[in-house]
């Protein structure tokens, strides 16, 4: 089995030194960066307000190569596809729970699925890769019809409620990772797309092994890396 990719979440870094923090990531062999875009509306907290396309653009201008995964936890995420593409995002990871029109009447799941499909089409036609993220309380089977379209190459399994770093790992994520592996391995996954399984939230030294055993390909980690007492590089080594 391949070693999982460690993807630092910039949410936990020193925002006054974004350039220096990203250099640390690259120097430690982590060229796969996770950018949490929160608007304080979808997440309904004034503290959950983070980065926008301008930040992504500045990072891209300075660093041509890293993968920039933009995790969109915002109200009306569709508005951000083009600005993020122009800014140089590699991939949009949208939140499944933000899909649908929120109106009563009609089938909610159908609504969510058709808006997710339309959004994935937008994202990929703008030249970005597309992933979907699910909250801890969302059943993983709900997104299989979306994955069946073959437009997505990544699933972000949230092991915390999105909004803050440093929360405790919720083990519901483990079963979801296993189900996603099954989905992929039974080649139910269409068009031979290499579906990557990412786990996001609460990943640290004590939770990482169960996550990798379950079969995650990418580990997002914020607090465990940027707030490690012995520094970033030591933290990456420990996690590896
Ligand atoms: C959850 C975010 C994560 C977060 C993880 O709100 O989507 O990306 O930064 O942070 P840690 O690793 O501190 O749990
Ligand atoms: Zn995230």
UniProtKB/TrEMBL annotation:
It catalyses: D-ribulose 5-phosphate = D-xylulose 5-phosphate. GO terms for molecular function: D-ribulose-phosphate 3-epimerase activity; metal ion binding. GO terms for biological process: carbohydrate derivative metabolic process; generation of precursor metabolites and energy; nicotinamide nucleotide metabolic process; purine nucleotide metabolic process. Its cofactor is Zn(2+); Fe(2+); Mn(2+). It comes from the Eukaryota. Keywords: Carbohydrate metabolism, Iron, Isomerase, Manganese, Metal-binding, Zinc. Its EC number is 5.1.3.1. The keyword Repeat does not apply. Belongs to the ribulose-phosphate 3-epimerase family. Catalyzes the reversible epimerization of D-ribulose 5-phosphate to D-xylulose 5-phosphate. Homodimer. This is ribulose-phosphate 3-epimerase. It comes from Stephanodiscus triporus. The chain holds residues 182 to 421 of 421 of the full protein.
